[in-house]
Amino acid sequence: MAAVPLHSHTLKPVVLREEIRRRRRKKAITSSSSISMDQITVEFVLPTATWGSNPDSLQLEVAGNWTVEQVKAQVWLKAVTSNLCPEFYQRFSPDHCILLYQKKGNLCEIYDKHQVFQTLDCIRYWRALKKDVGKIQLVPRPQPSDESLQYQRYLNYLIGYDVTDVSNVHDDELEFTRRKLLTPRRIELCDRDPKLYSMDPWVTRKPLPEHLLSKVSNGHILVVIHMSTASHTIKVSIDDTPAQVLASFFNKTANKRVLLGIPDNVCETDYVLRVCGRYEYLYGDKPLQNFNWIRQCLKNGEEIHLVLETPPDPDLDLVQKEDWAQVDDCTGVAGTHEQLTIDEKDHERVFTISMWDCNRKFRVKVLGIDIPTLPKVPEFVVFIEASIFHGQQLLAQERTTSKTFNEEVLWNCWLEFNIKIKDLPKGARLSLQVVCGKQPQTPNSKGRKTKSRLLYYVNLLLIDHRSLLRQGEFILHMWKMPEKSEESSSSINADKLTSATNPDKESSMAIAILLDKYCYPVVLPKSRDVGRDVGAVGEESEGGERGQREMPNHLKKQFEAIVTTDPLHPLSPEDKELLWHFRHECMRDPRAYPKLLGSVKWGKQEDVLATHRLLERSSAWDSSGLDVGLAMQLLDCHYSDAQVRSMAVRKLETLEDDDVLRYLLQLVQAVKFEPYHDSALVRFLLKRALRSKRIGHFLFWFLRSEIAQSMHYQQRYAVLLEAYLRGCGEAMLQDFRKQVEMTEALQKVTREIKTMSADKYDVTAQVVFQLRQKLEILQSSGLPDNFRVPYDPGLRAGALMIEQCKVMASKKKPLWLQFKKADPTTLSKDPIGIIFKDGDDLRQDMLILQILLIMESIWETESLDLCLLPYGCISTGNRIGWLSS
User: Fold this and answer.
1) What domains sit in the chain, N to C, each tagged with a CATH number?
2) Burial class (CB in 10 A: 0-12, 13-18, 19+), 721
């Protein structure tokens, strides 16, 4: 039976009563619901345990299919009926408290109030420990301290966005994700090697290219090691580790310690090697030839100069303690269909409904649209086009009638889609578009097609981050379609996929819709127990037999041609049918995965379940070699399925840091194609950034730049950036603060200079004088005395050399700046030359440079040195950035 909406009258009460009686009779003769009706004994430690003579705890038999909210309400009810502390339990609601439990010495919070109790991580944990009675604490909801509020404001400043602002969200996904990302962050911080993290050696596993090997004499190189004002040159093998180089240096200079200023009571283990003039360390168990700086020196024919110094203090990377309790990874995970189904259960004991019980078609009621100021579109009519997408695959589409475009247009009509609720996949989005066309001029023109134009759009994920089907009324503020001449038109294809709504509520178009409302939460199950579902077994065995049939020889050539087709070339319906028919054959060849997964009918529950089973059983993907291009294909906008995207990320886990940096720009963009804020890709980026300061540095600027320029994805990127900043350590936070302060100060100066010589390409001496005067004031009024250069974190810039700074003769009036090098060990007297630009989107430059670097790495593996010298470039905000001069 389909779950019935509250405002639907398709079933009469008599029919409902008959259905309930039928279920009760069926329940009496079957025990198949026993799993979902398990009774779990839990001892609840009360928040009033310390109040005088009150009992410390209550014991409760909890039904496995109760929600967390229901459990809390039952505890509260028992406390009230037992007349415990009426001044507390009758005054406050259950929401006043949170639920905590102990796991391996950590305090974990049961966070999702809609979660079915038997799917909680604590239940699995207690069962593993063979505990008959679990223990849960109820504690008053903690309020943030002044210190943590101040720290949050500091993080918001660095992020460039207030992640605590929930004024523009229609659910708790933002806060939910912030809490859930605490767990992977804590795991990463526990496993992090403090010394390795503080020095962050930049190494590669790739073999030394032939053209560099030819510059090495018999496998040995000369290294100049500096100590105070003295230096010593030693010959070392390219296969030596930094520790072996240090041991060799101390052996060869045993009689020169006084000259070199090395105390007698120290040895090689008390020191590390750093590149002269750069904050780049040679540390760890990798041979010298694997260090990128060594390779760069060999490539440029430069001497290798290193400085001997004590290692940096790992305590500088201390992380501020979290106020939050940990949220386990089971949070937000739905139960199986068998746990959630209403079939064969007493309706009085039902608190959630499985979506797969909902056999009726999905529908939406379009109430109307409203805009404060009507755009200049005279004699236009509008209609709403409502589509359901999964990735780029259209699952169903309907539209309203056309009406004259006014400040308020009302339809008040239901649109029923040709897709059943049970077939909606996770990640399915309802796309609502306001489309306009010209009013027919004459009666004869009514039948003619008029050219329509998309004016506004907005998306709503039909299944939320907790796997709950959306219900009830929504007022969604829509995004305006940019004109072709506008800058934002270049990113419109990605922007149109966002599930965020327009934060500009005052002037934006708003659409009001109504979704069916049910008596209970409707949940998308995480899986189906195939062994308990005869129909599913039959389908699977039949599909398996058909799918595993040997591919005939005459089709093998066609199959190979399909697999090797350009990824940008769309497949025909016949090609898709062939791939799906021989899906088991496809699963043996990882190259076919993007094409096969693009052929799945994501609007058919049976096909989705069959695909998931295929992915779970296949080992070909994990055992195949790393193909970054293949994995990246599965992370583009065509794939919204979490299992598919997780599989792609699993492949990327084997990437070394050097390659993560190489593809970081694309990986950050791919986050836009995730349906939800929390994803395997987001967690991958967070983990890798917390392991490497270099990756973390570039992730910070890539995210901050997107937050400043892309309103459509601000919240998602801000949540990821906050999660990183809470784990990167104090030293990195200080570095980011200095860079942000420098960027803001220079942006202010650039804009003032531009107003002085607007629309002029030439620059007068007066403008240069004004620039130097402004820089002088800046330098004396609290600019950071040194900072890491945003496009090259190994370089630290010091004071401005004001007399060498100028304004460049260009329309955007970029600043030509010269900085002293802040590192006293630098051997070159050349200043650090930087161009600061305001008015251009440097993300385009970054993309071209990235392509060149990838091409260079491909050529190098073939021992081809094309002598490329890519310049440093990074976007640090909305059309602002830094370039090397």
Assistant:
1) 32-143 (3.10.20.770), 198-314 (3.10.20.90), 347-442+449-481+498-523 (2.60.40.150), 530-720 (1.25.40.70), 730-884 (3.30.1010.10)
2) buried
